[in-house]
């Protein structure tokens, strides 16, 4: 008998078994517009009928990054799928779009069906939180390509928004306020620095430092803001939104501002999870480096008119979110790129 694909490291039967395990998780996310189930060559999804005059599709793609290294180290795989969904749907959301469906890519050297199911079940939970359908995905078994016991995740989201309701920041001007919405922790950015800090300090993920359980704090899943921000945009005119990811507040807030403006934030106006201060202390990390690497307690910022601040904060609070009036939009250098600074 000649050499088989399975002997070469690719187990098609295991892949088929995983698809069957995924199906009930995906079914929980099913929206009425879905025209096909998991397992086909392509996912079919209808534009919601009668809801849009000029529908615009908004797409986003991302991964989880080296946060996965922590999941491997602690053998905890249930929540990284939530992170995966969050990174894309929160991006799509900033245009005012409602996420419609999500696709995932899971790649590993040798497929462990039980572990993979835990990961994809997390993806499905993330889709439920975002109100979108897990429409399909790809599982790739790549022998010799990845370290044994590890995997890679990537995801892709598509949302929809009425053309006249796209949030593009064009109407933002001096005097508008910046609402900061609390993050759940580091979310999915800055983990290379976080891991280096713990390594240099000789600490393990199972350790507790100054009352913070390091592994728990660092694996806290990324908050998904979709339903809350869409509700906010229904109540009042959201002028701009920024998802605070890599490069932090200084790098992301300007992405939703028009040229010739700046956002001035005041660090004393919001609270952040203790893990940020733990990392800064352990690594003796300079303040600017912290703010240019981590979200520092704010996972999403929203620009509204000053007259709408009270209503915005009340709505977000009623939905269980911590949010604060953290800053103001000022006139910057005419014609210059927008910028943001965070004052102590």
Automatic annotation (TrEMBL):
Q: Which UniProt keywords are given for this protein, alphabetically ordered?
A: ATP-binding, Cytoplasm, Ligase, Nucleotide-binding, Purine biosynthesis
Please give the pathway this protein is involved in.
Purine metabolism; IMP biosynthesis via de novo pathway; 5-amino-1-(5-phospho-D-ribosyl)imidazole from N(2)-formyl-N(1)-(5-phospho-D-ribosyl)glycinamide: step 2/2
User: Known EC number(s)?
Assistant: 6.3.3.1
- For the PurM-like C-terminal domain, which residue ranges apply? 173-332
Does the record carry ATP-binding as a key word? yes
What GO biological process term is on the record, naming one?
'de novo' IMP biosynthetic process
Q: Which reaction does it catalyse?
A: 2-formamido-N(1)-(5-O-phospho-beta-D-ribosyl)acetamidine + ATP = 5-amino-1-(5-phospho-beta-D-ribosyl)imidazole + ADP + phosphate + H(+)
Localisation per UniProt entry? Cytoplasm
- Where do the TM regions start and end? none
Organism whose genome encodes this protein? Archangium gephyra
* Predominant place of localization: cytoplasm
Residues spanning the signal sequence? none
Instruction: Please state what the protein is called.
Output: Phosphoribosylformylglycinamidine cyclo-ligase
């Amino acid at each position: 008998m000649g050499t088989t694909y399975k002997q070469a490291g690719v187990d098609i039967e295991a892949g088929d078994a995983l698809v069957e395990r995924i199906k009930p998780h995906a079914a929980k996310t099913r929206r009425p517009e879905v025209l096909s189930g998991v397992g086909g060559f392509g996912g079919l999804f209808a534009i919601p009928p009668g809801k849009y005059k000029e529908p615009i599709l908004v797409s986003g793609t991302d991964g989880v990054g080296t946060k996965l290294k922590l999941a491997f180290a602690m053998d905890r795989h249930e929540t990284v799928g939530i992170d995966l969904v969050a990174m894309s749907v929160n991006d799509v959301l900033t245009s005012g779009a409602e996420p419609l469906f999500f696709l995932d890519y899971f790649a590993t050297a040798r497929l462990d069906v039980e572990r993979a199911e835990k990961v994809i079940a997390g993806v499905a939970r993330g889709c439920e939180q975002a109100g979108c359908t897990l429409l399909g995905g790809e599982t790739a078994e790549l022998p010799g390509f990845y370290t044994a016991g590890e995997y890679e995740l990537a995801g892709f989201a598509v949302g929809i928004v009425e053309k006249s309701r796209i949030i593009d920041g064009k109407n933002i001007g001096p005097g508008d306020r910046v609402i900061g919405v609390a993050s759940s922790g580091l979310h999915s950015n800055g983990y290379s620095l976080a891991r280096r800090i713990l390594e240099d300090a000789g600490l393990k993920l199972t350790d507790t430092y100054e009352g913070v359980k390091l592994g728990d704090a660092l694996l806290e899943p990324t908050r998904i803001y979709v339903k809350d921000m869409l509700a906010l945009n229904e109540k009042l005119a959201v002028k701009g939104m920024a998802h605070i990811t890599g490069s932090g507040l200084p790098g992301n807030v300007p992405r939703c501002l028009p040229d010739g403006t700046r956002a001035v934030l005041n660090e004393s106006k919001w609270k952040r999870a203790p893990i940020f201060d733990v990392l800064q202390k352990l690594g003796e990390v300079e303040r600017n480096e912290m703010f240019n690497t981590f979200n520092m307690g704010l996972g999403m910022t929203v620009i509204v008119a000053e007259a709408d601040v009270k209503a915005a904060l009340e709505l977000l609070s009623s939905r269980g979110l911590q949010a604060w009036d953290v800053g103001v939009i000022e006139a910057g250098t005419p014609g210059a790129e927008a910028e943001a600074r965070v004052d102590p």
